[in-house]
Write the structure tokens for this entry.
Amino acid sequence: MAATTHRWSARVARESDALTLQPGIFAQRSPKRIAQSLKTSAERSHRRKSEPFRSAMSMLNFFINRMGSQLSPARRKVLDRAKDELRGLYGRSKR
């Protein structure tokens, strides 16, 4: 498989119209820090096409899905908590 087709997800994260992320954001241990950073990035972005909440949640879900089975249960738990924190920051409840 060619390298250009092999790394499509890295290109999406780098060149996406969604938002520019703080380096290493998904390596943070605190769900609250992850959510706050995503919120800040989404609100500062001039490239996003939808509302800040949708852009931030979309990027978080993209990362979780991209990691797939490589994501440890502990990391998955932190990122799922970050989703809840992000919903809370935007005053949205879990449906």
